[in-house]
Every structure is written in structure tokens, then in C-alpha cells.
């Protein structure tokens, strides 16, 4: 079934300005107060308010962590305060929206005046900080005016800011929005959603969703993970410390349940990117979590950082730089960078693999899905995300489903977190990348945390995959189209092989569908490739080009005449007589031999126009670091995780590398030839009639670290039938007729 979302709404300029102003205000109050920031905020109010604000600002205690401090030094500095740390009991405001502008003015004076630390007041004492009071008022105004996703009506919402004691006494900043208890709600208990920040983001990231969901009858607690912004400690990249911190957040929910009218037996964890990965890791570690939502998250951290053995150069630098203490948003632990560098260098030691395993939800499937839990999980990723790629998301989905979890999956057009961003700002239908994502998230929460509250909706599809559309652009309205699949893999999608024959791709034959590769023949022809970065294939500018592709419909293109025939090869199929719909994970299987043990194969799928213009549809790279079988630490048996807990002692083995995943090693003897599989990013698109499917091949992908950049490297690829491109083609019975 093909589904359509509602048509995008073009918001008038004044409303857009209001939204921008609201976001700027949230950003301002989310940062650590400075004298300049408080002065600029206070100038909007009278002299007495300014005086109170400046007096309060002098009392603010700033806790800075220098770049060279170790985790032990941090803990020793905060140990005394941390021993007393806990949730704060903060007074509630009397109204959600009493004389709105006056309420905002008074909130700044009273809230800042009561604060005695950077956030949440002194541990154990009541106090309202400016950010929670201002947020409550601004979002109350937005909801009363029906701004974006915030609809008038619903329950009144109260806000509270608090400090939660994490591991080692590290104080974690948290903000909770919950339904105001009127006479009708005095005995009600509301389900809980616990949100965690994305990488580099602060508490205001989910403020609009907190208001929206609290008005819909949820207690919504957002906390900032250790090492980010005002939360103390250091970032260990979703390691055991972060997971144990999350469990302390759940303890706080139980402790404060009566204050917030919360039902701690109905808790979901959710988040975007870093917060999405932590949401599932927390659910696996703590059975109090009954559902999890991972948006632009990961299932296998090794697959994200070095999928198919090819280290992700661009995102490695982005993560390392953005987490550096001198940038000012986070304090990345000194223990993280050596592991990042080891992954980049192809290090697959037991210690490095164990570090990745601890941080990978796929390594905790038994805890999450086994033992009768079958935790419901909603996954959402984006087709142009080159960090947590869509093919990895589908493999993650299969791992969860196979382990017994109930999984819903969505794949959207856009780069990392692009489909999520409009809804996080409160404008789900305001731009071309809008989708039914956030309404689907709320429906998922309702179905799993409010069973019986309403007539059950129809079962959601196993996979909703957005079709790439040429007319997609933020500059014009269009109707996003999603293909819904009731199961995945779907019988509607069949793998079709295009065999390499000379410089051509032989079109699929009926008998060739899903057929294994024939054994190579002695007289088989080969195509020799030399290593070189000048291939003629364009991958675009990292992050920018895929963003422009998804936002403006300007696709990444190369040209047949520009291909460097010594370092790259292009294999072209006959032009399509009819449109071809492709939806799923493409891969290429090459029968290859190499002059050196280490090499990289980079494959690209194109839609080639009659004039030789090549539109990039998907790509992937595979690095071969060693010949021979995988080392024990990369096999599904054996090895301990970072906590030292042996895997597989209870229940079935917790498989980390799935049988259908691509491993790092190449089990071929020196001087021999064998099969090399290159998996490419999942896609859902149409190849128009008249265009041809084309496969590009080289030994260099500029976005991935090459296992070997020696100019003397040569790789021979069989091109007389033993090598093939496999495309997941939607059959006519599956809705592919256009």
C-alpha cells in the first residue's frame, strides 16, 4: 500500500518570525547565564526587575571542567555536593497563562532571583530557575495561539527544573513538563516519557514536544546526559556510565511520581541521535522501560563508525571536534578518542570490539527482547544519513525483530535528524521534509502506554519508506509519498541481479532472480583497477550535498565522459523500457583478486540519462584489512563486554555480528581470488523510463578511510558473469506500477 502524508503547509512570514523568536528565547535561557545575556534579557523589563536579575546573577556558581582534567578529578571536585544530590522539589506556578506578558516578566525576576546555582537551585532546596518559568509562559502562549504543532486545548501544563544525581555524584540537568492537577486530574496517573539530548544539544531540544505531549496527558522528563552543557562529568559516548545515569533518572521518576501525578509502571524512553541510542540501551538495561523510541539512532556503533571495515572519516572528525571541551558544548572523555582512532586505523582487537559492543543495542537483544519482554521499539532513520545509515537501520530492525521485539520502522528522505527537526521546532508540516513522523511517534506512545484509552488503531506497517521524489523541495509544496510494507523483508520486493559482462550490466532474467553467483571460469575476463583518488565520480560535499539533495531536489551528479578509466570503471545496463522502482538495500558482489592484502572497493549505483549524466542513487565502501577468517573477537561467540560480563551465559547467544552482515576480513589465501560483497545505503526511488541503471567501481571513497592508499595497488574484478549488482526491485504486484 502506498500512503501519502498531508500536504505541506506554507506558514506565513509573521508566524515564522514568531517561531524563530521562540527558539531564540529557548536557546538563550538554555545557556549558562552570563552578565551580557542577563543584561540583554533584563532590558525588556523595568529597573527593579533588572536589579533583581543582576543581583541573582552574582550568586550563580559556575562549574567548569578543563580539558586536561580526568574523570577522577571531576568526581573528586563534585563528590561532596554529589553525595547530597537528588531531585529538587520545586513549587508550581499558579496558572499556565495568567496575563501572559506580565507572567513572563515576573518569571524572570522571581525565577532568576531564587536560583543559587547554575541550575535547579541548591541541592535539596526548592527553587524555580528562569528557564523553566520563561519556557512555561512562552510555550503556553504558543499553545493558546495554536502555533505549529501546539493545538489549543488539552491539559494545562506545569514545568519544573531539577538536578538528578548520576554516577559518582555528577549532577545532571533535567526539565520536566507534566499535566497540572486540577480537580478532575487529582487522582489520575499519567504515563511517562523520558527524553535524552542529542550529541551537543541542550535541554531546550525537546521543549516544544514536552509541551505538546504533556498537554496530551504525559509526564515528559528531559535530561541532559553527563558531560554536555551544565550536566557534570565527562562524555564516554553512551557507555556504562551514561546507561547507569539513565537508570538513576528512572529512580527519580519513581521518587517524584506523586508530585508529578506519574505512573512509573508506564515509562517509555525516547530521543534523537545520541538520545535515541541511549533510549534503547536504557530500555535493555532496565525492565521498568516498557517501550523505546530511537530517532536517527544506531543499533551497532561499529557499523556506524566503520561499517564494512571502512572508517567513517567525516563523521569521526565531526564527533571528535564537537565534543571537544574547547568548543564549549561538551567534555569528551580522554578515553573516547583513542578508541575512535583505533577504529579509524582498522584495529579490531578484543578491547576495541568490546568497547563498541557495550555501546551497541544489538549486543543487548536478549535483555531487550528476550525473557518474555518483547519490548516495543519505534525506529526512524533518514535515507541520506551517512552516520547512522538507512541500510544499518534496516539491519537493526531485523536484529530486533528476530530477537522477539515488536518493531515499527520508518525511513525518510533527508540527512541526519533532518526529518525530526521540523517537528522538534513545532512545525511538522511546514517544510518539504515534513512527514508523519511525530504523529506516528505519539500514536506509538498512545498504543503502548495508554492501552484501552481509545479504540485500537489498525496495526502499523512493519516498514514505511519514503519515496525519493524529483519535485521534493523546501521551496514548493509537494505530497511526500511513503511505501508501506506489512512485513520486512517483503515478498513484494525481489532481489534482481545485473551481471557484469565486459563494460555492461546484463539485465535481470527471470531465472536469475536470487540465483547464487556461478563459479568463476579459468578464461573469465577481468577489469583491472589502479588505486587513485581521481576517479571522476562525484560524492558531493559531505553533509552539504546530501542536505541540498533532500531539501532542494538537487541531486549529486557525475558524467560518463569524466570517468577516469584507469582508477574507475562504469558498467551500464540497457535503458529502461518502463520505470523501475527500487526499495531496500542494494549490494554488489565482486569476484576479485588483489595485488596486496589490504584494499578498498567503493561501489556506486547511478541512474544514467541518455546524455551520460549520472545521478547518484546509492553508494557504499568495503575495506579489506586482513586475509583469513575473522578473529574470535568478531565472531558471535566469546568475548566479554566493557563491564566484564561474559556474553551468552544466560539464554541464547547475544549475536553482535549478524550472519548477513559484512565482516572485516577476507577469507581468501594470499594470491588467490574470491568474493567481495559491498553493501550500499538503502534507498527507495524510481529509475525513469529511458534512463539506464549503472554501477561505478573504484578503489577510493573520499568519505571513508582506505585500508590501502598505495599507488602500486591493483585489483582485478571479474566481469564475465561472476560479479553482479543486486537491486531490490518492487514488483508490479507490490505497487510498483507508476
Provide the fold topology.
Layout: E1 2-4, H1 13-30, H2 35-42, H3 47-59, H4 71-84, H5 100-114, H6 130-144, E2 157-165, E3 171-179, E4 190-196, H7 207-215, E5 219-223, H8 240-255, H9 257-260, E6 262-272, H10 274-285, E7 289-295, H11 301-306, H12 313-322, H13 336-344, H14 350-358, H15 365-369, E8 376-382, H16 390-403, E9 406-412, H17 421-424, H18 437-449, E10 463-466, E11 481-485, E12 493-501, E13 504-506, E14 526-530, H19 544-552, E15 557-559, E16 568-572, E17 580-584, E18 587-594, E19 599-608, E20 613-624, E21 673-679, E22 683-687, E23 692-698, E24 714-718, E25 720-730
Parallel strand pairs: 4-5, 4-6, 6-7, 7-8, 8-9, 9-10
Antiparallel strand pairs: 1-11, 2-3, 3-5, 10-11, 12-13, 12-25, 14-24, 15-20, 16-23, 17-22, 18-21, 18-24, 18-25, 19-20, 19-23
